[in-house]
Amino acid sequence: MLFIIDHRHSAENCPAGVCKPNWDFAVKMNDSAKACGVQVIEGFVDLRGHRMYFAVDAAYEQQVYDFAKPLMGVGRLQVVPVIRWSAIVESVKRSKVREGSP
Question: What's the pTM?
Answer without folding.
Answer: 0.81
